[in-house]
Structures are given as structure tokens and as C-alpha cells.
Amino acid sequence: MRVAIIGNGQSVHVVGRSAALAARGLTMRLVTLGPVLPAPGIEVRTRPIPRGPVAAARALLGFLRDVRSFQPDLLHLHYAGGRLGSLALLSGIRPMIINVVGGDVLPEQHPGGLSRMARRTTRRLLERADALLVKSDRLLPAAADFAEIGSKAHIVRWGIDPGDFFPDPAGAEAWRRRLKVDDDALLVLSPRLLRPLYNIHLIVQAFAEVARMHSHAVLVLAEYGADEGYRREIEGLIDALGLRERVRLIGAVPHGEMRGLYSATTTVVMTPASDGLPQSLFEALACGAPLLLGRLTGYSEIVEDGRSAVFVDLDAASIAQGLGRMLGDALLRASLAREGRIAISRKASLPDDVERVVGIFEATVRAQPREPRRLDPLGALLDLVALASA
Length: 390
Fold this sequence. Notes:
alpha/beta, 2 domains, Rossmann fold, globular, 14 helices, 15% strand
């Protein structure tokens, strides 16, 4: 089967899932805009990110050539929105299968919400998709707020490859040396984006209380996709709370180094205001890292409060109480780690998910015609406008 993948070439998840499908025997071409990560087993076609209507028109023509010359059996879009979503619509290729991941259908994850044009693109994509691969049950009603999705939605979590994420004592030791902490240090890791949505300021405020009780505790903050204004705010908060010697800001960690970092931590904390089912949740569980999570309903699809994770309310006092409990109870951490690994192996296994996706691909190709959809001039014009304005 020949699959044209449309997605962010800098996303380790897009590239990793596509590589897993290629390893399963599918012939894959990734068609995208901008830089692309190494993509073993995948043919890649990319164009510069367009700025303005003229560049958008050129990108569209190049994109159409890159997709159509491949003669795909289906189009697989890795996000129900954005420039790439508009390009996928304009290609007219079917069947089209779309991953729904969270930010595409959860407007609260965007400062100020989604624009009218962005909402239109997502609605049109969901309407035109022949099948949807939805990452969590919680996203089903969110997608249904945009369009009637009926029976074409399938829950696919895109879980963990057990060959990539597992407890890694050697990697953990290397990270502790890199962080310049003692063997008995209690490491609290926030692996999420350094942006207001993820409530990093609440974690820092909570850690200030915990640091007074645990002299060996150290907070480690990843800096993926850092909002520079928010980063300055976090640094100011760290200084105001007297935590400069107790906090490590470690930049954007390469994906291949995360296994060791998760394995080094005493607890991983994630308390965003809104979330789907992030890969960081899956990765931490697979590496045996005890989890402290904000009380969001989506997480309960994978973990159980008090059994495979500890849930807290989204305020600094509750987070501090949860961290104190975690850091002070080694038996609890060991139990959470054990149950968490069991949960992730049962509920989010990438090899199992790949087999399911291949079956969905095959069934969709059999059921849907491959000829282009009936031309919709007005819709195509609006898709062009969305492409130029994204």
C-alpha cells in the first residue's frame, strides 16, 4: 500500500509513526513544509513554508505535484488543521484519513481560541475525512462539536514502542551526572512545553514549598517550544522564590535522550490546563517514572488515581501537597511505577496500534473510491485563503 503522509516534518511523533508503518511494509512518502527530521524508510518531499498569497500558490502547486506524482492509495494527515490541512483539502485526494490529536479540536489550547478561518478548516477536514484516528475518547465530543463524525472515528492512541522506552539505569546515571546532582537527589521533572497552558508557574510555586521540606529535591524544567515572555516570567519567579540553586532549565532535550531522563527522575509532574493524551505521559509510564498529574478526565483513560498515578487539583497548594506525598514515600513511588508500566503496556502499545491502523487503512481503501471529489470552487477558494492566512 502506498501512503502519502501529510504532517509536521519536525515532529518526532509524525516521523516515528510513519517509520513504524514503513517498517510494517507500507510504502510511505512524507509531504510537508519546512525542515524535516531524519526519516528512515520514508521518502520525503518538502517545500519552504509559504509567506503570503504568492508563496502559498507556489507551495500549493509544488505540494500537489509531490503528492500526486506518488500515486498514493490514501492520504494520511497528521493534524486536523493548519496550513498542511488546507493543502490536504486542496489536493482532493481520497480516501483521506486524519489523526485527531488534541490541539486541533480543543480551542482552549490556543491563546485567544481558534480563529474563524482555523475553525472552518478543521470542520471541513473532519467532514471530508473518510476515517479519523482519534487519540483519546475525550476528543470524540470535541471533534463532534465541529462536524458530524458518525462511525468513521477510531480510537488509536499511538502508544509506545517498548524497544524505545523502558527503565534505563545507565541513561539515568548519565543524566544525574549531567545535572550535577548527588545520587540521593530527588528529581522532579516537568517535561512539557514551556508555555502558559502547561502551568509551569504553578509547578515552580509548588516546588518552593516542597524544597523547604526536602533539602535534596531538585526541579528540572524542559524548554520545548518555549514562549520567551513566559520563560522570563518563570526565571523571575525562580529568583523571587530563592530557587536558583534548586532548579535546572535544560533546554529542548532530544527525543532519544528522554528515556534516560525519565529513568533518572523521582517523579514526573504534568499539570496543564487542558490536554489530550500526550506522548510524554506514555513515555514516562513506560520508563517507570512515578506520575503526578493534574485532575483532567482524559488521563483516566490510561491511569487510575492512587494506583498508577497520583492526581491533584490545578493549584499550587494541591500540587505541593502531591509532590510532598510522592517525594516522601518510596513505597508509593515503586507501586506507581510498577502499575504504570502495566497500564501502558496494556493500553498504549505502538506495535498493536500499527496493526490496527494498517487494518483501518486497508478497510478504508476497499470501501472508498479513489477518484477526486466533486470540484467545490467556493470551498477551494476559501481553502486557499486559509492557506495564505495560516
